[in-house]
Specification:
This protein is an all-alpha fold. It has helices at 3-11, 29-57, 73-97, 101-127, 137-168, 178-203. The longest helix has 32 residues, at 137-168.
Amino acid sequence: MTTAQTTSAAARPAVSRPLPHVLSGSRSPSWWAMLLVILNESIIFAALLTSYFYVRLNLPAWPPDGMKRPELVIPLINTALLVSSSFVMQWAQGGIRRGRQGRLRLGMIIALLLAGSFLALQIYEYGRSEFSPQTNVYGSLFFTITGIHGLHVLVMILISSVVLVRALLGHFTAERHLAVENAVLYWHFVDVVWLFILASVYLSPYV
C-alpha cells in the first residue's frame, strides 16, 4: 500500500455500529433496574420491622394496654394465597421459556386472582379490626407495615396486569420475555416480604 493510500484510509471515518434497540438477558438494564428497586424496598421493610421490634422490646407487654394478640386465620389464608401465587407465576414463567404462551397467560391470570383475593381479605381484616392506627403505637405499626405491603401487592398486580395484556397480544416468545422475568422477580420479592411480616407482626406476639 502506498503512502497516499494509507493516508486516504486513515482519513476515512470509522464505521460505527448501531446500538441495539432491544436488550435481553439477566444483565439487561431493566433487570438491574428491577434489582435496584427490590434492594431499595428491602431497606424500607427492614427499617419498618426494626422499628417494630425496637418498640416491642422496650414495652413491658405486647400488644400493649391489654389488647388481644392478632388473629391468625386470615393471615394464614393470605399466606397460602401468596405462596401459591408465587409457584403459579414460576410455572407461567417456565411456560414462556419454552415458548408456551397459553401456559403463561393461564398462569398469570390465576396468580392475579390469588393476589386479588389476598387484598380483599386484607381489607376485610382491617374492617373487623378492634383497633386503628390512632389507637396506640402497636396499631400504628401494624397498619403501617401491613398497609405498605398491601400497597406493594397492588403495584405487583398492576405490573403483572400490564405484562398479561402484552402476553395476550402475543408480545412474548421463548427468546424475548424479559418483562415476564422482571414481573416474576418482583412478585417473588413481595411474597417473601410477606413471610417476614407474618413471622414478625402476627406470629411473634405469641412467643
